[in-house]
Write a structure and sequence with these properties.
Number of helices: 6
Structural class: mainly alpha
Number of strands: 0
Shape: elongated
Number of domains: 2
Oligomer: single chain
Largest sheet: none
Helix content: over 70%
Radius of gyration: 43 Å
Distance between the termini: 87 Å
């Protein structure tokens, strides 16, 4: 273990937050390293001195005054936000249906015009002669 890691573990140990597995590795390091042992004793002495100091009592009104001086953040109305998202989604669905209907109508009308141009006999001839023409052209070359 490096000394830098041991220093961090020493602080965690004094705060009571070091897990037992790391506590064992810290103890092994402290047995070998005199500088980390010195750091631990200094930190322990400092913690003891700080605990011995009397804690200052603050007036009861101070807590409320601090809280009142903090800037307040207004709560947002989630119901209004949700209603706006529903309205937007509804408009998108209506627009999609309208656009799809218009595209379908235009496509259907376009199909009627082409069927009027080609007569039934022309369509039958094109189906029957397609394969024959291409085969004949292949043999002629």
């Amino acid at each position: 273990m490096r000394c830098k890691t041991a220093e961090r573990y020493i602080s965690l140990k004094l705060d009571g937050e070091l897990c037992p597995r790391r506590l064992n590795s810290l103890h092994r390091h402290l047995q070998k390293c005199s500088s980390c042992t010195h750091i631990q004793s200094c930190n322990l002495a400092l913690q003891t001195k700080l605990k011995e100091q009397p804690q200052a009592e603050f007036p009861q009104w101070l807590h409320h005054r601090i809280l009142e001086s903090l800037p307040r953040q207004e709560k947002r109305n989630r119901a209004g936000k949700r209603a706006l998202s529903y309205a937007t989604a509804s408009l998108a669905v209506i627009f999609s249906l309208l656009a799809g209907t218009l595209v379908g109508i235009k496509g259907y009308e376009g199909g009627k015009e082409t069927s009027n141009v080609n007569t039934q006999s022309e369509i039958e001839y094109s189906y029957l002669s397609f394969g024959e023409q291409s085969l004949m052209e292949a043999y002629d070359d």
